[in-house]
Amino acid sequence: MKGAHGNMSTNGGIDALQRFSLKIYADPPEAVAPAAVIPVFHRWIRVRAGSELLIDVADYTHLVDGPHVLLVAHEANYAIDGSGGRMGLSYTRKQPAGGSLADRLGGAARALLAAGRRLEQDPEAMPDGRFAFRGDEIAVIANDRLLAPGTAEAAEKLRGPVRAFGERIYGDGLSIELLDASDRVGFSLKAAAPASLDTLLARLR
Amino acid sequence: MTWKEQLGGRIPADLAAEIDTFESQIALRRQGKIDEKVFAETRLRRGVYGQRYDNGQRNDGTGPKTLEFPSDGLTKGPETVWDAPGMQRIKIPMGHLTPDQLDTLAALAEEYSDGVCHVTTRQDIQLHFVHIDDTPDLMRRLAAVGITTREACGNTVRNVTACPLAGVCRDETFDVTPYAEACMRFLLGHPDTQDFGHKFKVAFSGCRDHACGLVAMHDLGLIAVTRTENGVERRGFETYVGGGLGAVPYQARLFDPFLPVEELLPVAQAISRVFARLGEKRNRARARIKFLVAGLGIDEFKRLVLAERAALPDDPRWTAHVDAAGKPNGAPDAPAAAPSNGNGDTAFGQWTRTNVYRQRQPGYVAVTVALPLGDMTADQTRRVADLARQFAGGDVRATVEQNLLLRSVREADVPALYRALSAAALARPGAGTLADITACPGTDTCKLGIASSRGLAAELTTRFGARTGELDPAVESLRIKTSGCFNSCGQHHVADIGFYGVSRNVGGYAVPHFQVVLGGKWRDNAGSYGLASGAIPSKRIPEVIERIAARFVAEREQSETFQDYTQRIGKRALKEMFADLAAVPPHDEAPGFYSDWGDPREFTLGDMGVGECAGEVVSLTEFDFAAAEAQLFDAQLRLEENAVEQADQLAYGAMLLGARGLVKTEFIDVGDAPEAIVREFRTRFFDTQLFFDKYAGGKFGMYLFRRHESGPRATAEAAHRLIEEAQLFLEACHACQARLAARPAAGLPPTSAAAAPRA
Q: A139 to chain B: which residues are within 8 Å by CB?
């Protein structure tokens, strides 16, 4: 017998995937001052922003090319994230959610995009100049080396659900590329035309 | 497919069984079938540790707020909410890591934690924000690459540490690695180390003079020494006991100037027995062995240990390691190609000066990868693994200064390694300097943290890191260490300049402060401890360092050390030096003083919780009972799967564990053999009728005897009946224990020497 958590990786099929990470990218990246986001995330905990249980803020501003500031929630981790040399906002799902994989990807994307919008609208987050998040690109990584190890076979199984998710937000202009995700399957989804986070959120409703 | 199935063949059977048991205990705790204190100590013994706010309360800057975890009242220990994220401590004996292990740690950090691996001050790796339900799979993946988390926390023998240069050091007497490893293997899970009142830390050092092993601050510290007898050189250890930091630091006492290597393990075992038998168990503040040694005096302590040693039954493992110790350790013997003179790059030269150590093997060096605050991202962890494969023969050690060491790198490869490290942001210079600051987790994640040791360390790293190479050499070589509280996990007592977090009330507000501890001695294996010199507001600590560094440079006499300098000018002068810095401006003038480094919330002590460093005192009996319950639970699962033979065996095993738990209240050396357990149980509890139920008499005890004598039961029906009987037997064990606990205290369990079965 296992708890809900322990069951996250037991069903075998790619549809059972619960752990994944999504990331959007900041524009211009140099305008992001991770330390400035620390008080913003603390405020989010205080005002209970979003629908998740926000727990704590972790300061990793001393790290290069990694998570710089984390907002730890029960359901997921949000991070001002410079991994891969690209500054952005990531959402890493930890707790299982209901529905199909497409539903779960959609739910995670909604949480990520809503957090991105809140940051875009928060002057305290932008002491070094205004930044926005690019709406025309989103990375999806299956953060589960059991269900989705970095093999061609696993990538092929995941490509369909990820493409369906991508078409939902980007429509016909979607292009999809495989990412190097360290023994995991990851995809970069790109739109043919620029899009705001609000637009993407509207498409996910 | 599960990780258990995926990795089944790659996990040693004993580790696999332990993790399965832990998973069952998680399930039982979910059902309320294991007491929360027993479960807390059970998880701690597997490195599953609590973390700040896991009581479900957090001050958000305006006051304490409840974190509404969906746990529905379920706890994983006293005041510890089930769904609250926790910390997983991962023991890395001697800090020795392989590339495959690093790759696995990176993957685990990404999948179960926050994407960061943290190196601790005791050569462990810690992952934070881990959910307890993920821990069994996390442990399986570690076990598949040869790592156990067993006894990483709790009242156990913690990670055995050793000098990270062991085997390549120019000054060591001999390589302590094989002895440290033998000690770790021997004490891990040993029956004599399961009943401590507190944790027990062991450290090895290859020489007396340098820091490396920090022997003097350990419960058991061993320094490599040799002695020539009849023209033959013999290896041994200058052996110390009873050291420790914490709120009241003790220097270890010399136990034996030359303990032959053949006696290392039996004496460690005897020390464990004496600690388990006589160490304090009720008063946690005095439960470390340092208090026992100080209370008894080293002579009496030694007498007791040697008496225990003399009574120990022989164990072939005591000396099995000795023959292996002389064999090659993997470090290269042949000289490498001519060393490179570098590429003329100033940054490279700076880094080489502080981060590269010339090994005793000609042409080879050890390279320190200096990690800020001991942290590295998952990507960086994988990169270190790759570079270790490429340049270091796969030989990596974590250090107590929270860095990594790549060993046996050819000098000719150093420029290429530097370029590769630079590309991964891993070529930070200044290893072992003022800018290489050690910090415990403090208020970031620790329940006991008072002030932000990591926040302070980050600030100091930024300030002094930018000045690497510009500082006076006498100042550059100083060590700074910060702890979030007096418990000294940041080892502030052995720093030249140490800090530990305290709080002061100013105008009705709590203000984060650090107590300044000066003059500790890192060298000579933590040769002496610094003394507190006054509390200074957290935000003024950088000024403290600037000021004392400037004064040291200006007033230093010839080659005077910092310790000698602080002793010479005296405590009064030191206090006066910082007196003006102690003042705190009013809240409305300088609100920044009222929050901590890196945390905008108004400072409070309200988030402190109950620490788990000491674990819970759980008797051996309770442990056996908990294990019995888990085994019986597994028996039911096997029966459901129609695995009759396994179900029968597990139910029988559960009864044996229950019986053994009771026997241990009188005779801790009963061992694991079913014959001995049944015999001792019969003699001590059945024949004496201590086990008898008021109404059922000895009926439940007969269940055990019958199964023991008749052997396995072949049918599902019989196995089912045995499970029922085992349940009743365990209930009777619990009842018997309760009756025994209600009796007047009869004294401590006897030593092995005096443990003859009662007639």
A: none
Q: Are B635 and B620 in contact (CB under 8 A)?
A: no
List the structure tokens of B714.
């072949």
* Domains of chain B, each with CATH number or no CATH: 3-143 (3.30.70), 169-325 (3.30.413.10), 346-423 (3.30.70.3340), 438-602 (3.30.413.10), 620-754 (1.20.120.330)
**pLDDT at position B679, please?**
95
**What's the rounded Cα separation, in Å, for the pair A91 and A138?**
11
Asked if B628 and B42 count as a contact pair (C-beta separation under 8 A), the reply is no
User: Is some CB atom of chain A closer than 8 A to the CB atom of B288?
Assistant: no
> What ipTM describes this predicted complex?
0.95
Model confidence pLDDT, tens digit, residues B418-448: 999 999 999 999 999 999 999 999 999 998 8
Helix (H/G/I), strand (E/B), else coil: B128: strand
Instruction: Please answer whether residues B222 and B204 qualify as being in contact, where contact means their C-beta atoms are separated by less than 8 angstroms.
Output: yes
Give buried/exposed letters for B661-687 (b at 16+ CB in 10 A, else e): bbbbbbbbbbeeebebbbebbbbbbbe
Minimal CA separation from B385 to chain A, in Å: 13
Q: What is the pLDDT of residues B39-75, one digit of tens each?
A: 998 999 999 999 999 999 999 999 999 999 999 999 9
Per-residue three-class SS string for B258-327: EEEHHHHHHHHHHHHHHHHHHCCCCCHHHCCHHHHHHHHCHHHHHHHHHHHHHHCCCCCHHHHHHHHHCC
Whole-Å CA distances, B253 to B220, B292, B604: 9, 12, 39
Q: In chain B, what percentage of residues exceed pLDDT 90?
A: 73
| B379/A83 touch (CB, cutoff 8 Å), yes or no | yes
Q: Does B444 touch chain A (CB under 8 A)?
A: yes
Per-residue pLDDT averaged across B563-573, rounded? 89
